[in-house]
Design brief:
The structure is a single chain. This protein is α+β, with helices and mostly antiparallel strands. The chain folds into three domains: 236 residues, Immunoglobulin-like (Sandwich); 201 residues, no CATH class; 209 residues, Sandwich (Jelly Rolls), CATH 2.60.120. 16% of the residues lie in helices and 36% in strands. The strands form nine sheets. Strands 25, 26, 27, 28, 29, 33, 35, 36 and 37 form a nine-stranded mixed sheet that branches. Helix 5 runs parallel beside helix 10. The protein is globular.
Length: 714
């Protein structure tokens, strides 16, 4: 088995905020450029002023108060595209992206908002009056663990606790109107520990803002940190009475969050606010010294809430239902391993079996409180089922039973941010990995499935590749009375492995037999998905699943063309070794459109290339592609009689600053034609002034997709 070579024991101990790694300098827009920029927008904010107050010293009585005043200028009748701020609670961190099973995701930004108000004023022809609004209270289905694990982390409820407040404008808007929205509400920190103990504030929105400000007001007796990134330092910091104030201001902010495929944390200014309630402290064992609890430790314990009981059960030989079920499962799969290497190989085989053959249960009836518990993880594992609520428990039990040293690997979707000592919100909400220590400089990765299609041993989706990962052992957050030490204040950061352009390939060779007599085209295709194409797309072939956190275009199969019908059952040959090649053999057919002596063949969806969307408005931030790749399709058209191609489409041979695109049709003889297309993306990022490279390739791909070949019978 191929090892992942990474420095594991000699980590970089991060002492400073890591979100700025790889940052691109934020360049403010000039007044003249901004005035030209906003002309294409249906509306923009002339001013937006936000104030955040934090009161209280203890987590039980701390509250966060938000006030926002936005003055919007309407420039066209479709201005509702800009009015996302009419839904409360507002998103302070529009770059956030939670990677977790859908039933566990916390989709509401702030839970349990109180005293919410939204006052709206319309100014038209220099006269002001209240703007007519309707409000709809929309329950937000959020899931989380039923049982808390620490007195610090409150017990979460099941669905229905959180609400969105949707405000709808009940009158027509006209160009030249000015709208003033004044919003206020507050929340308890105790209900939002996982979201507000550590949160980011971005100054940009999905609409342009001429003048933006933020006032942060916190009791000076509260221990807190305010880190700034991408040149977002406060204009001034001062103390008034019992409060410490931070004042920020920006001018001419673009509507950056309307631009798809951005890494906002790399380019846009933002602040990271970290709260440390007084009661979040501990006494070092066998001493009188008190220290604040490192925030990573709070949430690492929360995420591993079953780990301690599993370790105790195994060490004490407990015979409960979970242990009995797991032992019976492992008895069927354990081998007579004599070396550490063979034990790890055995673990890899077991994981690949779970990834490939276990039924995945999303536990929706449990999260909706329709059942109280269901089968335990031992019983379900023995039955070949991986429950969403217990995704990690079978693995923890197995690794403890095999006596393998492993770590929790906490990380963030790299499109959203980077994990660091300061930014630890992903530890509380995102998925994590299990890192098996192979030797002093190598570890292997287990990422439990979150659909029926699982990730193989050492396999990761692109948004977890090449990004920072924090490795945490349970002893890092567990206070052992026998061990007189403080909890580590630092996180140990390394990089996850990353697939390259040679790993990420898709190639199909297809024989298309054109029968003019039967008026049909029969396709016999053979292809291979490799690297990320396999990771993201094989689920659509195996289980008709769409990966929940990527472009749905990755789910398009080679036979998903108009009016296609499968002939027989496709044959799939997966490989569990990197680059996880997935072979496909399939046959399908479509009707053939003929008119007199003419034959028409529509190429729609024959070449299902996936390119990022540059967005509708002028681009102001860099565009990031998902991963580098090579994507190749070759069709051989074989007719049952002699034909002539009447409309020869344009050939393409593009090689620019984003990638390469080649397309051609060649005639072997009067009955055989070969259509070849290849797309290579070899640039991960395009600056705004380079977007035309993507547009050039996208236009060519779109032209091919809209091509209808016309043949004339001889």
């Amino acid at each position: 088995m191929r090892q992942i070579s990474l420095i594991f024991l000699v980590f970089l101990a991060i002492q400073t905020a890591g979100q700025g790694t790889g940052a691109i300098r934020f360049n403010p827009i000039s007044d003249s450029t901004f005035n030209k920029y906003i002309q294409a927008w249906p509306c923009y904010a002339e001013t937006e002023d936000v104030k955040i107050d934090v009161s209280g010293l203890y987590s039980s009585d701390m509250r966060i108060y938000l006030k926002q005043k936005t003055t919007l200028v309407i420039q066209s009748s479709d201005a509702e595209k800009c009015l996302s701020l009419l839904t409360l609670p507002l998103s302070l961190d529009p770059a956030a992206s939670i990677i977790a099973p859908l039933n566990e995701k916390l989709s509401c930004d702030w839970s349990g908002i109180r005293n919410q108000t939204l006052d709206a004023t319309l100014i038209r022809d220099h006269k002001s009056r209240p703007l007519k609004l309707d409000v709809n209270v929309r329950p937000v289905e959020t899931g989380s663990y039923k049982y808390g694990v620490s007195q610090i982390v409150p017990e979460h409820v099941i669905y229905g606790e959180n609400d969105y407040y949707d405000y709808t404008i009940k009158e027509d808007l006209m160009p030249g109107d000015t709208l003033i929205f004044e919003i206020s509400y507050n929340v308890a920190l105790a209900e939002n520990i996982d979201k507000l103990l550590n949160f980011r504030y971005f100054f940009h929105r999905n609409y342009p803002i001429r003048k933006a400000s933020l006032e942060l007001d916190i009791l000076k007796s509260v221990w807190f940190e305010c880190e700034t990134f991408n040149f977002s330092q406060p204009d001034t910091i001062y103390t008034v009475d019992a409060s410490k104030k931070y004042l920020f201001s920006f001018s001419n902010l673009s509507g950056a969050f309307s631009e798809p495929n951005i890494y906002a944390w790399r380019e846009l200014p933002y602040a990271l606010i970290i709260l440390h309630p007084v009661n979040f402290s501990y006494t070092i064992p066998n001493t009188l010294e008190e220290k604040p609890i490192p925030q990573y430790a709070i949430f690492a314990e929360y995420r591993d809430y079953t780990g301690r009981s599993i370790r105790l059960d195994i060490s004490q030989g407990v015979n409960n239902k979970e242990s009995i079920g797991m032992r019976r499962f492992l008895e069927k799969h354990k081998k007579n391993n004599v070396t550490r290497e063979s034990i790890i190989e055995n673990v890899a085989e077991i994981h690949n079996s779970i990834a490939g053959s276990f039924i995945y249960s999303n536990d929706s009836d449990y999260y909706k409180n329709e059942i109280t518990s269901g089968s335990n993880y031992g019983e379900s594992t023995k039955a070949g089922v991986l429950r969403e609520f217990f995704r990690f428990e079978p693995y923890k039990y197995m690794l403890e039973d095999f006596k393998l040293l492993y770590y929790f690997g906490f990380l963030s979707d790299k499109r959203s941010g980077l994990i660091s000592k300061q930014y630890i919100t992903p530890i509380s909400q995102d998925d994590y990995l299990l890192l098996i220590l192979r030797d002093s400089v190598h570890y292997d990765i287990i990422y439990p499935k979150l659909q029926n299609t699982g990730y193989y041993y050492n396999e990761l989706p692109f948004y977890y590749e090449g990004t920072d990962i924090a490795s945490v052992h349970y002893t890092d957050y567990y206070l052992d009375p026998k061990n007189q030490r403080a909890l580590p204040d630092t996180l140990y950061i390394s990089k996850t492995p990353k697939s390259g352009i040679l790993d990420n390939t898709r190639k199909f060779t297809i024989l298309a037999t054109v029968s003019t007599a039967e008026k049909k085209i029969g396709f016999k295709g053979r292809g291979t998905l490799s690297g990320q194409f396999s990771t993201l797309s094989r689920g659509s072939y195996l289980h008709n699943e769409v990966h929940p956190f990527v472009d749905s275009a990755y789910a398009q199969r080679i036979f998903d063309i108009p009016d296609a019908v499968l002939i027989g059952k496709p044959i799939y040959t997966p490989s569990v070794e990197k680059p996880f090649r997935f072979g496909i053999d399939c046959s399908y057919q479509t009707p053939l459109k003929t008119e007199s002596e003419n034959i028409q063949i529509n190429l729609r969806d024959w070449f299902p290339y996936i390119l990022p969307n540059p967005g509708a408005q002028q681009r102001t931030t860099s565009l990031y592609t998902d991963f580098l790749f090579t994507d190749t399709f070759v069709y051989q058209l074989s007719f049952d009689q002699d034909v002539v191609l009447s409309n020869v489409p344009v050939s393409f041979n593009i090689d620019n600053g984003y990638g390469k695109f080649i397309f051609s049709i060649t005639e072997s003889n009067s009955k055989t034609f070969t259509i070849s297309a290849q797309l290579i993306v070899n640039h991960e990022m395009l600056r705004p002034d380079k977007i035309h490279f993507l547009n050039e390739i996208a236009a060519a791909v779109n032209e091919i997709d809209n091509t209808i070949l016309e043949f004339r019978k001889k």
